[in-house]
Amino acid sequence: MSDKLSKEQIKELLPHREPMLLIDELINIKKLQSATAIVRVKKDSFFVQGHFPGEPVMPGVLIVEAFGQAAAALTAAGIDKSTYENKLVFLMTIDKARFRNPVTPDCTLELNIEAIRSHGRVWKYKGEAIVDGKKMADALWAATIVDRK
Predict the structure, then answer these.
(1) For site-directed labelling of 1, which of 12, 33, 43, 109 has its Cα 20 to 30 A away?
(2) Cβ(59)–Cβ(48) under 8 Å?
(3) Is 51 a catalytic site residue?
(4) H or E element: which one contains 94?
(5) What is the pTM assigned to this prediction?
(6) Which distant-in-sequence residues (6+ apart) come within 8 Å of 55 by Cβ?
(7) CB burial class (10 A; 0-12, 13-18, 19+) of residue 140?
């Protein structure tokens, strides 16, 4: 496995598509352990159009969604394809989410994520969102892998 995934490679692992595929790259991958997701927050990103006019900010809920996508990509990249084929990953819990500073366009949001535990189909993660070395948000969350209907 490469220590880097492009957006096209991420699309092979996740069902998300534009505009909801938020992560642009996954770098510094340590198989089933940790990675850094890159989110390029642009002035024309769909979520800044009305949030808020004149003072655009990436919504905190989308930072959490990007954490979840990064974790799903990290996990899918590290397990056998047959394990995640025809499956979906759903967030189960979000704990201790803290939003410390607003994320504004044009910036590169780095999501440093770590898998901290897995038990069967349930995985637990933690992450920090960073812009230019400054912590913007952090959270703990759990996700599960389920069969597609």
Answers:
(1) 109
(2) no
(3) yes
(4) strand 87-99
(5) 0.95
(6) none
(7) middle
CA 93/CA 76 separation, integer angstroms: 19
Say whether 6 sits in a helix, a strand or coil: coil
Question: Mind listing the pLDDT tens digit for each residue in 12-30?
Answer: 999 999 999 999 999 999 9
Indicate the residue type of 139.
A
- Residue 72, domain CATH: 3.10.129.10
* CA–CA dist 26, 28 (Å, integer): 7
pLDDT value at position 60?
A: 97
* Cα-based distances in Å from 135 to 23, 50, 103, 112: 18, 24, 10, 10
- Domain carrying residue 123: 4-147
Residue 147's pLDDT is what?
Answer: 87
Tally of domains in the chain: 1
Catalytic residue, chosen from 11, 40, 51, 87, is 51
Torsion sign over Cα 55, 113, 12, 148: negative
The tokens for 125 are: 């993660």
Q: Using the predicted structure, report yes or no on whether residue 1 has a pLDDT greater than 60.
A: no
Task: Give 43-95 pLDDT, tens digit per residue.
Answer: 999 998 889 989 999 999 999 999 999 999 999 999 888 877 888 889 999 99
List Cα–Cα distances, 4 to 35, 42, 70, 123, in angstroms: 9, 22, 12, 21
